[in-house]
Every structure is written in structure tokens, then in C-alpha cells.
Design a protein that fits this description.
4-stranded antiparallel sheet, Rossmann fold, 6-stranded mixed sheet, alpha/beta, 3 domains, Alpha-Beta Plaits
Length: about 300
């Protein structure tokens, strides 16, 4: 994997407050990574370190093999796109004028701005003053400015905040497209279920420390969370099915025509084989693996208070 961003033993303190402690991670080309944690966990601090807006108190930060807070930091930042959690634009400027302003700052051609406004669904509002934009429209404009210059690295801090479902889908489609084109994407979000299909890995932060990192399969394996199996069964057959099962299961819910079971990963195939033998009584079956949100809550519960 071609390493694009590397943090090695990075610590950042603000006075007596340690915002990030001994953080080590790498991001590769064409990789989308979710940065997960509660408010104040250190996610924004980590992004600011990658941007070179602040310096670490210990450890090293390298972006495209350079120090982002070094002498060539401004030049390096032209290859980065950043969407902050809270956006503040000059209300008297139009959407088109704002993109032109940011394009000049990044020394990027203005010719692509029209397409960017169209991409985020603001083509019809390009000549309106930003002060008349809704929160969701301002968020989409912020995404457009982050995409100026076709950045190699995209840092997105709560990119779907304030967006309606259609606009959120548009953001995720943009992440997929940039990821496929080879861009490196770090996205901080609380929308864990939504972001899960659009990232390769997740990094979980708690009180400035990385408590877990990896792809969903490895996180799930390490957490040893059970698989949930939901059954729609023939009426009044739930008890007969339960007495026919020999696998080590937990009964989560039952009714006249429904069973919800939990089974450990190492017993999942055994249970499925047993259920296959009872197919005459089973009308439908749904297997639900623990997702990123379940993994996050589980890992948070295991962190000492």
C-alpha cells in the first residue's frame, strides 16, 4: 500500500488537556477511512494535524512524505481538501463567487467550479447570495470548496450534517467516486450505519487514544459479537423449532410467527445447517452481522471509566 498519510506516536496537548495521545496510523492511496468517536475524542485535532494547522507536542506527522506544518505546508495544502464540521461563509457573496475565491487561494482553475456546483446540487443557486442558503445548502457548498483542485487527500468532518436523505446519498456517492479515483479520504462522522458501506477501515478514538483500528471483519472478529438471525416462521411453530436446535444460541425475541436468535461466530454455520433442515417451518431468514455502530458501542463499553 502506498502510504499517503502517516502519524507515528503523535501527541497533542492544549495546556493540561491531552487532545491526542501516542496516535499511530497510516492512510493509503485510494483508501477511505472512518474516524469514529464521541465529541471531544480528538477527531478534529487529528485532522488539524494532518492539515498542518497545528503542530504535535510529540511524534511525527507526514503527508505525502512531507511535514504539513513545515516550510512547504501551504504548497502541500493545495493538494488537500477539507470540509470542516462548522462552515462559515461570507453571506454577501454568491455561491459562484465563493468557489472562485477558494479556487484563487488554492491556485486552481476556475473552469471546474460550475461542474462542482452542479455536482453538489447547487447549480440553480450559483448566483444567489450565500446568506439566503439553508444549512444544508451551505454544507453542500462547503463540500464543493473541499473538492476544488481535485485533491489527493480529502478530510471530511461530519460531511452529512444538516443534509436531507437525498443530499446525504450524494455525499456518499462522491466519496465512492473519489475513492475509486485513487484519492485518500478520512471522514469523521456519527452516522456509523450510513458510512459503513463506503469505507475500507475504521479508526475508533476515545479520550485522545486510538482504541481500535481495522476493517470491519477484523473489528468484528476481535470483538466476538454474536450474529443475529431473524426468522419468520409458520404460525405456532416457534417452540417446535427451538426444541429442535442443538446449537448454543440466545433467544432474543419470540412470538407466534417470529424468532430472533443470537449465535456466536464459531457456531453460526452449525446453526444455519440446523435451520436448513427445518425449512418446511421457516418462511424467511435474515442474517444480521454486527455493524460499525454495534462495534463502536461494544468497544466503548469495554473502555475503563
Amino acid at each position: 500500500m502506498n502510504t499517503i498519510v502517516a502519524l507515528d506516536g503523535v501527541t497533542k496537548r492544549y495546556g493540561k488537556l491531552t487532545a491526542l495521545e501516542n496516535a499511530t496510523l497510516t492512510l493509503g492511496a485510494g483508501e477511505a477511512v472512518a474516524l469514529v468517536g464521541h465529541n471531544g475524542a480528538g477527531k478534529t485535532t487529528l485532522m488539524k494535524l494532518v492539515l498542518g494547522l497545528i503542530r504535535p507536542n510529540g511524534g511525527t506527522v507526514r503527508v505525502l512524505e512531507k511535514d504539513p506544518a513545515g516550510r512547504k505546508g501551504a504548497q502541500l495544502r493545495r493538494r488537500l481538501g477539507f470540509l470542516p464540521e462548522s462552515v462559515a461563509f461570507h453571506s454577501a457573496m454568491t455561491g459562484e463567487e465563493l468557489l472562485g475565491f477558494y479556487a484563487r487561494l488554492k491556485r486552481a482553475p476556475h473552469s471546474a467550479n460550475k461542474a462542482l456546483l452542479h455536482q453538489v446540487g447547487l447549480a440553480q443557486a450559483a448566483h444567489r447570495r450565500v446568506g439566503t442558503y439553508s444549512k444544508g445548502m451551505r454544507q453542500r457548498l462547503a463540500l464543493a470548496q473541499a473538492l476544488i483542485g481535485t485533491p489527493d487527500i480529502l478530510l471530511l468532518d461530519e460531511p452529512t450534517s444538516g443534509l436531507d436523505p437525498a443530499s446525504r446519498a450524494q455525499v456518499y456517492a462522491t466519496i465512492d467516486r473519489l475513492r475509486a479515483s485513487g484519492a485518500t479520504i478520512l471522514v469523521s462522522t456519527h452516522a456509523l450505519a450510513e458510512i459503513e458501506p463506503h469505507v475500507d477501515r475504521a479508526i475508533l478514538l476515545h479520550q485522545g487514544r486510538i482504541i481500535a483500528a481495522g476493517d470491519l471483519a477484523s473489528l468484528r472478529k476481535n470483538a466476538r459479537l454474536p450474529t443475529r438471525i431473524r426468522l419468520k416462521v409458520a404460525p405456532c411453530s416457534t417452540q417446535k423449532i427451538l426444541t429442535s436446535l442443538h446449537s448454543d444460541i440466545s433467544l432474543l425475541h419470540h412470538s407466534a410467527d417470529r424468532l430472533d436468535l443470537a449465535v456466536a461466530q464459531n457456531h453460526k454455520l452449525d446453526l444455519l445447517l440446523e435451520l436448513a433442515a427445518l425449512r418446511d417451518m421457516i418462511e424467511d431468514l435474515h442474517v444480521e452481522e454486527p455493524g460499525l455502530e454495534a462495534l463502536y458501542h461494544h468497544l466503548m463499553s469495554e473502555v475503563p471509566a
